[in-house]
Amino acid sequence: MTTSGHRLIVTAPSETEIRVERDFDAPVDLVFDCYTKPEYVARWLTGPEGWSFSKCEIDLSIGGEYRYEWTGPDDAFLGLTGEFHEIDRPDQLVSTEVFDDEEAMGPMLVTIQFSALVEKTKMTQVILFESRAARDAAAASGMTDGLGMSLDSLDRLLGELQPR
Amino acid sequence: MNESERLDATFIALADPTRRAILARLIEGEATVMELAEPFDMSQPAISKHLKMLERAGLISRSRDAQRRPCKIEGAALKEATDWLENYRKVWEANFSRLDDLLDDLKAQRKREQN
To answer: Is the CB of B10 less than 8 angstroms away from the CB of A31?
Structure first.
């Protein structure tokens, strides 16, 4: 078990975006491969405990698709389809993705940047929700807007609520 | 409201600094609208509007019978919202912790190949 101690930073730059930042103690090309080679992705992008990949396919080309399917406890199922728009190894990946059963959430434009630092890599992922989808979602399930704002505002709230 | 609508109302309520400050104040104990309006340089109707949003999200409640109608914080809705955030973070923490391990394996492998 690694204890890198790198902080996960989640912010909401706008009402339709989520930004996730994390450093990794590895060269930038390795981190890029871990995001783009199915045999690697399948080993880490598995989500909550009890879930695993039942399908992990990636066509790493412009216009190429990727398809993730996960199964979880009690036959739970989650599927996601993505399409690559930009592939700039090892610096940047731009794709759109949509969950099968989460119409309220998608499609999302996902931009992932990898920057080489001294003996580590900074990963920055920005998820842009379509404004229309965001608006529809607010009416339907409410999760899209909530997700974007909550991460940031809750962090701040929790900071403010600390006993003085 | 169903669960996700309530959660959404909670997050919208929490997105505003004035409403967060009101919650922070109410953590210290009940307060009336007038007491809550005092530090904000805001009219009572403006504060009342914020209170309505907090009440709709279930984050505060207002006593019906008392003349002063003091507001108090409701911990359950706040906990639901923070639990949800905590789950989101936990999933990504777990993903990235596994990625740390995988990268360690790959670095070791690369080192062996270079030797």
So the answer is: no
Query: B63-113 pLDDT, tens per residue?
Result: 876 677 889 888 777 776 666 556 666 778 889 999 999 999 999 999 999
State the CATH number of the domain containing residue B78: 1.10.10.10
What is the value of pTM for the model shown?
A: 0.65
**Do the interacting molecules here have an ipTM over 0.95?**
no
Interface residue of B3, B25, B85, B91 to substitute, partner A, most A CBs within 10 Å: B85
H/E segment holding residue B44: helix B44-56
Helix locations, A54-106, DSSP H: none
**Amino acid at site B20:** R
Q: Mean pLDDT in each 10-residue stretch from start to end of chain A (164 residues)?
A: 64 71 91 94 86 95 96 85 97 92 70 94 86 39 34 48 43
Please name the residue ranges forming H helices in chain A: 28-36, 38-44, 131-140, 143-161
Domain ranges, residue A24: 9-161
Computed on alpha carbons and rounded to an integer, the radius of gyration of chain B in Å comes to 22
Tell me which chain B residue has its CA closest to the CA of residue A123: B96
Q: Please answer yes or no on whether A153 and B5 come within 8 Å at the CB atom.
A: no
In a domain, A4, yes or no: no
Count how many domains chain A has. 1
Phi, psi of A95 (to 5 degrees): -150, 165
Q: Smallest Cα–Cα separation from A85: which of A102, A110, A103?
A: A110
Joined tokens for residue A31 = 């981190």
User: For chain B, what is the domain count?
Assistant: 1
Enclosing domain of residue B8: 3-114
Task: Return the residue in B10, B100, B105, B106 with the most chain A beta carbons within 10 A, the one to mutate for interface testing.
Answer: B100
Is residue A2 one of the residues assigned to a domain? no
Handedness of CA A147, A81, A126, A27 (dihedral sign): positive
